[in-house]
Every structure is written in C-alpha cells, then in structure tokens.
Amino acid sequence: MAMWIQAQQLQGEALHQMQALYGQHFPIEVRHYLAQWIECQLWDSVELDNPVEEAKAKRLLDNLVSELQRKAQLQGGEDGFLLKIKLGHYANQLKSTYDRCPLELVRCIKHILHSEQRLVREATNASSGGGGQAMDSLSQRHQQINQSFEELRLATQETENELRKLQHSQEYFIIQYQENMRMQAQLSSLSTLPPEERTQRETALQSKRTTVETWLTREASTLQKYRLDLSEQHQKTLGLLRKQQTLILDEELIQWKRRQQLSGNGGPHEGGLDVLQSWCEKLADLIWQNRQQIRRCEHLTQQLPLPGPMEELLSKLNSDITDIISALVTSTFIIEKQPPQVLKTQTKFAATVRLLVGGKLNVHMNPPQVKAVIVSEQQAKALLKNESTHR
Q1: What are the UniProt keywords, alphabetically (predicted)?
Q2: Which of 136, 186, 228, 276 is most buried (most C-beta within 10 Å)?
Q3: What are the Cα distances from residue 91, in Å, to 58, 98, 152, 319?
C-alpha cells in the first residue's frame, strides 16, 4: 500500500500519466480499495511468456475477484450501497475479461505497478533537485499537446454545429422548392377553369410563386456560402490535426522509441506509452469525427447540387483526411516489447506489438489483420531503403 500512498501524491503531468494507466481493462477503484492486497502479491514471479504459468495467473485472478467480492460485502449503510454495487460489478467485469487469458491480467498489473514505481521515483528525483528542468520542459510539452487537443475539440464541435445548421437550412430550402414546383403544376392546370376564375387564381398563384422564387434564388446563394465557409473551417481543422499529429508521432513517439533503444543497452526503462496511446486515440477520434462531417457535407452536396467548386473542395478534403488517417494508423503500429538484441539459435524469444489507436479504431472499423515476419538485417535495410525512396 506504501506505493499507492506515494502515487496519490503525484502532481501535474506525473499524476496525469498515472491516471492514464487505468481504464476498463483495470479500474483505478480496484487499485485503490485493494491497494494493500495488490502490492503483497508476487506478480513478478509469474513468467508471462511461459504457458505453464497460466495456472498461477488463474489463481491470482480468482483471488483478486474473491477479494473484490469480500470488499463489496463489507460495505454497509446508505453511503456504502453504491460502492458495494460498483465493486461487485468490477469483480464480474475482471472475471469476464481475463478468465480465458489470466496472464494478460498479470501483464497489466505488472505494467501498472512498474509504471507507478517509475513515476514516483522520477517525482522524488525531481523534487530533490535532479532533473527538475527536464521535468518542467516535459510538463510544458504535454500541456501544449493537451491544450491543442482542447482547441481541436472546440473546432470540431463548431463545425458540427454549423453542419447541423446547414442541414436544417437545406431541408427547408428543399421544402420551399417542392412548394414552388407544386404551384407551377397548379398554374398549368388552371387552363380548364372559366376565364374570370382562372385570371383571379392565376394572379394570386403567380404573385406567391414570384415571392418563393426570389427567396429560393437568395437562399441558394446563402447555402453555397455556408458550404464554402464550412469547407474552409474543415481545412483549418485538418491543418491543426496535421500539426498535432506531427508533434505526437514525429517527436513524442520517436523519443519513446529512442528511450526503448537505450533501455535495451542498459539505459533507463522507457515510459509514457500509455500517455502516447491516449493521445493517439484522441487523434483517431477527432480525425474520424471530421471525416464523418466531410462525408455528410458530400451527401448534402449530392442531395442538392448548386453551381460552384464544392465537389472539388470536398474531394480534396476527403483525400487529405484519408492521408491523415493512413499516416496515423501506420505510424502507431509499434513493437512494444523488442526481442533480445543478440539472438541465439534454437532459442525462442518473445516480442509484443501494439496498435496505439486500436481501441478507438475498432469502434469505427474492423480490427486490422496482423502478420509478423522475421527478416534478416539485409532485408530490413532493403525495406528501409525502399520506404525512403517512396516518400
């Protein structure tokens, strides 16, 4: 429990990174209420790459679920009622999630505990004077990224609101257009009426039709302006998305890969991957929202064609955002756990791959099919050379 007490004292970016470790895969409430029990278990004694250890992992899972259920039953009174329900729900959720793959639970908890230890250690070193400037710089970069996400969220919400207004205006325009066509049909049918009645009704209908046609002409120009303005707003948002994606993929992710390389040579263990994943998932979500908005704009344009450059503009926007999605998916497929740098013949080794946008991507698309192939150093160099020539 001592580690959890220290972890709760974290501040700023370190606290944000600690919170990012938790989620549906392992709720922070479970860590809090079972802190002492969790820290007393021998998680590191389980060899994750050894299938024989699955029985040991299953016992740990069953014990964790039992502890949660026991903790839930201890809650009494009005204040403890909701907590009792919540802890019982978490017990069932963890049982359902990890019952067929208990080693993944152990992997998850080991990662959380090691990450907490690192964050507490870094915070302690920073407070004692060492690395304070570097931590300030890191905090500023992360603050800048989070601020940019807020700007993107607001920009995306604004275009969503404008798109809804455009849709409502266009729907009303179509209703008035249909009304104009109905009046035209009525005018054509007046020829069968007596001359006096025909003249009277024709004058009234023609006057009303002229008013509607004047409104339609004016409103068509307004709709086209709305479309062009919305297209310009989307173009600006895509520019912000590109800038944010470059900062995360070409700077933060590259730095993480560099730390991963150094850790393989005896350097400090790399960290911050969960924060990177949360950023990449936010990017994926924002990109997808904008992509759907652009598609809806295309549908509105097809539903009511108007003279102007909208088809070309939307085609360009669609192409641009597809490029952004493609770059995000290909760049966020990483090797989380590298194999040993020196491989022995006839010896098995483990490597773990991770798609940093997998959680969000699976909501909108089918999960990608992955095939891993071991290549020689010469083949790897050839692949890199081929990739650089196509950029």
Answers
A1: Coiled coil, Cytoplasm, DNA-binding, Nucleus, Phosphoprotein, SH2 domain, Transcription, Transcription regulation
A2: 276
A3: 14, 11, 37, 46
